[in-house]
Sequence to fold (324 residues):
Amino acid sequence: MTSAPQIEPKFLAHRHDLGVVAVGFSGGQPKPGVDAAPMALIEAGLIKQLEEDLEFNVAFDGQVHSYSEILPADDPSYRNMKRPKFVSAVTKEVSEQVYSHAKSGKLVLTLGGDHSIAIGTISGTAKAIRERLGREIAVIWVDAHADINTPETSESGNIHGMPVAFLTGLASEEREDTFGWLKDHHKISTRKLVYIGLRDIDKGEKKILREHGIKAFSMHDIDRHGIGKVMDMALGWIGSDTPIHLSFDVDALDPMWAPSTGTPVRGGLTLREGDFIAECIAETGSLVAIDLVEVNPSLDEHGAGDTVRAGVSLVRCALGDTLL
Ligand SMILES: NC(=[NH2+])NCCC[C@H](N)C(=O)O
Ligand SMILES: [Mn+2]
Ligand SMILES: [Mn+2]
Fold:
């Protein structure tokens, strides 16, 4: 039996209003299928459970956006980025969708899609919270990867490996149709960014993390201290009076629990550790937005059902379901 979470949200206008954005987008990386995740999550009952079990008033336009209407005719690689115009156009639209929910004081849940969509979600949250509360947001990025490559450091050219670089301003581009639409009010500070679960970081990314003193808890840190201590340290770094955007890449979980994802890396979080991270963030009452990304139901050798169920569980936990 479940009932509504007993958390008093600090930065939301109405405790039970949730905006949902479903982003069926795979253009930030080469594998098809990740665009089908929102539908798979919804069919697994996610939105229904949020309404019925967690008693949220869900604002959802009922659509999984495919963005085919903004697919550019011509989209050559530029500065080593693959499909730059398409990813830019989609993330700009996602940014506006997330912004409008967050601006009205709702908690925002975005179902991806590959992780490039975080350029949209986080920029939308950052702008809305600045305007509504005059505050900077913190970002907790739970992932096997740091996704902080600049176009120049990236070895793959896949933009899902670059969102944090654009969001922090470590990468930027003048061209309006290639992320030039990202303005200062969309951006976040490297001081308010915390990583959890890292274990596959590119050479150039390590250099960026080190040079900018970015707070990161790798799997090594989790092994050493345990997830409880790591969450205390991560939340301590952010402070108790800061709105939090949680961006959760399902590949942070070990492939044993979440095999259906484009870039699986062994040696990851257990299902319980993932849920625990989400629960600790729920407990703060500071959560203003959450992304769940990189579920790819078509990579289902071992059954996409497990990965979809893990995704549903992570979202429920982040929204306070398992707290007493
Ligand atoms: N969101 C993800 N799964 N990102 C994987 C990124 C992998 C690699 N670091 C790259 O830049 O291509
Ligand atoms: Mn990842
Ligand atoms: Mn990622």
Observations:
- Residues 98 and 124 are 5 Å apart (CA to CA).
- The chain is about 35% helix and 15% strand.
- The longest helix spans residues 84-103.
